[in-house]
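Task card 7
Instruction: Convert sequence to structure tokens.
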Amino acid sequence: MNMKENPYRQDKESLMELLQQYNIMKTGNSYKFIEEDAFEQIIDFFEEKEELSAALEAADYGIQQYPYSSILQIKKADLLIAKRHYKEALILLDKAELLDRGDINLYILKTDAYLALDQQKKAAEILEEAVNRFEGEERIELLFELSDVYDDYEEFDKVFNCLKLILEQDQTNEEALYKICFWTDYTGRNEEGIKLHQKIIDEYPFTELAWFNLGAAYQGVKLYEKAIDAYQYAIAIDEKFDYAYRNLGDAYLRMRKYKEAIEVLQKVLELARPEDVIYEALGHCYDKLKNYAQARFHYRKASHLAPEDSHLHYKIACTYINECQWASAIKNLESAMRIQQSRPDYNFALAQCYVQLNKTKDAIIYFSNFIKARPKNIKGWKELIKCLYNAGYYEEAMQQVHNALKNTTNKPILIFYKAVLLFAMNKPKEGILLLESAMKKTPKIIKELIELEPSLLQNQYVSILISKYKNNRLSK
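Output:
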């Protein structure tokens, strides 16, 4: 094989010869002339071997021979930045700028140095000025750099603006299309996102990313039907576009089209690695369709992928509660509480299960835990009082009514509960007076009281009171 047939070997031999010449020059035994681009090769060689000091030395020799070489000065500045000598690098880059303002690397390296010095604003100014000097691919590269700087110091609207400028210049730029989807949602600039992507689609109708971004922007303003249409176009162009199926499933979920959501979410599982959020979403769909066995199956799949997510055990428990399988519900709630014991909703659900199993003392403990966490929430007080009442603990129930009145800004239902407790404690006159007072203010709540104690309907005075209220309504 001759050397023409093996250019790699030829390049390697040329480089070895060049390094030999460079080493001879360093000893001072030879004044052999080395070309400017040869110094670039020598610097690159040492840099690739991560011998930064040797690379810097080569850059210095090169600059001695070519003091007006902006390229060599920019290369040295790059090495100084790698060695964290940022201020030195900036001095050198200023010199290089006087020699050649048209090298894009000059501005990118200045930006890197200012960012390293925690001067984000200065970095942004450098790039803002540079963007107007360049065109084409170089301008796009600078706009990407600028978007990263804006992201770094949390000027998020300006990140969106940079990406928009890129797409106005290069409508099918994949990187910009991927990034702008996130920033459209993050900045809430969905209306602009819709117009931008409609314009792209008019010019390039088979750009699946533009259709996907259009769908996401529609979804951001809750136009779910339009979002679904856009995602379906994206899938028609690329039938393996798993993120489009994913978002499509979310849009169907929000429209409560659970069967359609199940179909597309299953497609996500076929195309991408299994994720807990997809299995959880499938579980939610089956839950809403009252197919509790399938809901559990998918929640468990999600739980295997996210074993520390207590909420998945809670959701499994809720499917058992819906089927009145109290013991199974308790088992899963206990699993949830082993991970996150203090969650009020777990305590509340556990208390409800114990009520159904007539384990009053256990129910009281967990209702009390809920109330400690949410003392202003009437739900916990109501269930605790009902639990105590049904167990015949009237004195304790009355005490909890008074506690609830202090904590919940005098909810009307509590007055009704107080009245029924007075009847239960053999104080019918006080009960009737309190009930009449409560009925004048919020008569509808009597229904809840009758649910708690249906035998009250047999009390003559209560019956008269209810009739009076009904007659008053009819007369109005």
